[in-house]
Amino acid sequence: LHSGASEFVTNIMCDNTGNPTIPGVDTSPSTTTTSGKPTLAKAVCLAKYLNACYGQSVTSSNISRGLSCLATYAIAPAAITEIQGSATSFTYLQCVGFVKAVVAWAGTSISSHNACGYVEDPRFVSGLGGVSPGDAIVFKSSGTCSNEAPGHIGILLEDAGATICLVDANQVCS
Predict the structure, then answer these.
(1) How far apart are CA 49 and CA 30, in angstroms?
(2) For residue 116, how many other CB atoms are within 10 A of its CB?
(3) Tens of pLDDT along 1-28?
(4) Are 70 and 80 in contact (CB under 8 A)?
(5) How many whole angstroms separate alpha carbon 57 and alpha carbon 62?
(6) Between the N and C ends of the chain, which has fewer C-beta atoms within 10 Å?
(7) Which of 40, 43, 38 is nearest to 28 (CA)?
(8) How distant, in Å, are the alpha carbons of 7, 24, 74, 144, 157 from that of 1?
(9) Are strands 125-126 and 136-139 parallel, antiparallel or unpaired?
């Protein structure tokens, strides 16, 4: 991670309460939304928990072995269901599955389709115009959207101009 992003991530307190915190930011369930730092805290912690329970990849072949591990972190059952559904339906946990799990942990839901399907959804930001950390952002694949070019969706960790860092199913900066 970019050093600034690393510093921010280490300030997020991930524990087994099901309510990750960022010092100085109210992240209680009543204030957790699909946008902003409370969702960012859940996304970062979910990525951390997935890494602890599964290592680098959540797949259809290893999904069962990590479910009890995920449950120890008090992640909402609906979020675990989204992770399990994505990994078993598509061989690997998909970007949409990850974002749907974050949103489910925040107490709401979004429809199911490929990432490009969210481009027109006003709850998500297409591209980088006006984004802030914690926003779910969508990218078209090579400027187009189709089943062959499904796009990508993730939670913005940091916008550093020409470089961005997403928290997503790939658990890397894009």
Answers:
(1) 22
(2) 22
(3) 233 333 344 445 676 555 665 555 444 4
(4) yes
(5) 9
(6) N
(7) 38
(8) 9, 23, 26, 28, 10
(9) parallel
Q: At 106, which amino acid appears? A: A
Q: What is the 3-state secondary structure (H, E, C) of 108-146?
A: CCCCCCCHHHHCCCCCCEECCCCCCCCCEEEECECCECC
Task: Report yes or no: 134 and 39 within 8 Å, Cβ to Cβ.
Answer: yes
In sequence order, which residues have a C-beta less than 8 Å from that of residue 94 and are 6 or more positions away?
86, 169
The tokens of 31 are what?
């204030």
Token digits of residue 68: 């009890």
Which pTM does this prediction carry? 0.77
State the amino acid at position 118 in one-letter form: Y
Tokens of 158: 């940091």
146 exposure class (CB count in 10 Å sphere: 0-12, 13-18, 19+): exposed
